[in-house]
What does this fold into?
Amino acid sequence: MILDNARELSDRFYNYLLKCRSRGVEFNRLLMLAASDVDSVCAVKILLHLFHCDHIQYSLTVCSRFQDCVDAVAAAGDSVRTILMINCGAAESVVERLNVSDKVRIYILDSRMPVHLRNLYSAKQVCVLRKFSQEDIQQIPRWEEVFREEEQEENENGAPDGEGGKETDDNDDVMSQSSQNFRGDAGRARARKRREKERELREWNSKRIAVEEGYYKNVYYQDSSAVRMFELAHLVSKDDQELFFWAVIGLCEMFMQRKIGSTEFVEKSVALQGHVIRLTHSIDLENQQNFRITYGQDLALRFYRQWSIFESLNNTPYTVAIFRAWENKGHAKLHEFLADMGLALAQCKQTYSAMDFNIRRDMMEWFQAQAPEWNVPDLISGGSFLATYGFNQKFQINDMALGLFACLTVNSDKSSEDNFHDALDTLSKHEFDRLDRALQMGRDQLVVLRKIVQSAFEEKLFVGMTHYVQVCLDNISTAGTQFAGRPEVLIPLAHFLQETYVVMSRGQRVKKAPFVLVAQLQPPSTDGTGDFLHVVGLPGADNVAAGMKNFMGKAFRAAARQAKVELELDSFEECLVRIGKRSKTAFLDALIIALSAAPTEPQSNRH
Amino acid sequence: MFGQRAAELIRELERASDDALPPYKAESVRGICEEMQGIFEANCRDRVNLDADGIEQATAVKIQHAMHFRDTAMSRNKRCLIAYHYNRMERLRNLRWSLGGIIPTAIRQTLSEKETEWFSNYSKALTNYMMDVAELPDQDPADPQDPVVLDLTVHQRPPKEYFIDVKVLVDYGNYETQDGETIFLKKHMRLCMARTECEHLIRQGILQHVQ
It folds into this structure.
């Protein structure tokens, strides 16, 4: 069942939770399973606020892969009647995989598409809390295409039984010859009918497989879960600036991690504009200590408000790619760009907050004037959210999203669950120090990623295959253990590498070619048996820019089937898999075959 | 001078901190009572003098003024004594609510005999009342099995929030709450639980309160 608009969300989802409170002991606890990504942290934060207001009891478990969800549900046993899955579970048939009884209700809040058909067509037990555009609805196969009517299935099952029954009948009752003749005729007719049915079923089945394949082919994202929950909070009149801030972080993260394209991001930001006005309006203007969010044009440089302009230009993926900032020539070009603009080097290398006020004020215009000349139109973002706490330095919420991502993926002695809770605490009210620390971490992570990209270019690790581009990083474990030690980081790293490579090689074909990153995260062990490689697959760069539709997960699975390699999903992302180090060659060979079988796929995926 | 000791008595009680019970000043109380007795007798004598025949008008007025003055002093003494005892009683009652039915010996020594008696009476009355409140209507009063007492002295202030957010620090397994709900506690989980349920789990270090 789909709970599409916000009103349904509040009526059928939130009111159900409220009602559960008074229905007795076994109903009143909600089990929340949350994936450990930024959007999910924000959505959980908003929900916790709502639950706190309404005294809804919950248990929250952080899951990094689907098996964690299964374990959590199994451990909770019969005591749970309502399950809410946040950014996980949409791609699986949850009722079967989680093995729950039919008394349990499952709500799925997932930004990932496609949603498993069994979840969509579940009558009541599974509810999918998300918006479906007209286009999405059209892509969903019709019910009769993928499911058979109950009675038909019963007939299928019933046929062998009937036959069995007839046989025993025959043995027992040999009295009436004529009736047996009659039965024989009927039997033949029935057999013919059955054969026909079987043929029909086979046809339908093959059609069904094709339809499902088409439906499940691309993984893409839509509609941040946090924003969805904010809409719910708005509807039940419990929204405020803080909640809005969290929702915007969720949305910005999707944009920064290339889960949604820039047009989609702008559309959604504009839709949120109304909230900005409404919520800022209510703030007492006298009290400047308050937390404020504004929306407007800004430089699309990462962390520049906490950094210096020069460092930011030197590390933002977009400018790194354009200027080739790691080369001497690129460095010179960067200086030239700044000189053209009239920015003194002393000023650019200064921390942003210490720069001349006049420069800070006019800088936007200078950048705007120079952008067309240097062919860097994306340096100025059409719209980005800015937040400020009292008299503190403003920061871009885009940066905050990256900072939170760094918090979640920092590789220390803490587990990923601890990271999740830390991230939740970071978002707590009036904790500017923690927000600052998160921004710092995001910056550090960006520097580490840039170093890895630089070394990949210097060592010429890019291999252009016929159908895709491949990079193998073996030394990642030594390059940045703290900030690039977890598999999730490989996805932004792959985006960074791809973007830079595409700009470098300037070919149309490269733009369309899928991108594969193979990386080893742990230092190699002595015997090499327990070594794993992580493989990230991205579709062509033009596809990524338009809002990623990733078919690589499917390609990986096909390749693994071909090469008989065991594939492990280490997260909820299909495009990030783990393989044994020994099967690397076999897997990559099979991947070449799998991708060459469908070379035009990236183009056909675009609309 | 009249009333000096009484004022001193009150001042002393005032000097002690709000809920402390300074030792009972039996000596002063007795002294004040004697003073009052003396005043009363002097007034009685003057009354007789006033009624005597042939008393001059000027003298009568003088005697009347003296009697009035003594009377005021006496009622002031009386008020002080009542205030002293009343305040001590209030403090004693607070002790019953905060410390329970048994007074620590250090405090017991500061009480007078009457106060000890009052305390035990009050304690008894309170216990009876608490048993009355807890008694269920369908309970058989003839069956004197383990009397149910609703302890009114605990949770005197309403909690700020009934449910609190907690984080689980260790793998604990199933935990059954008072209302029969089973909650599975696993490390790194975050829950919202009734405060009363998790107070002792927090004390044991199984849960941690999240602000």
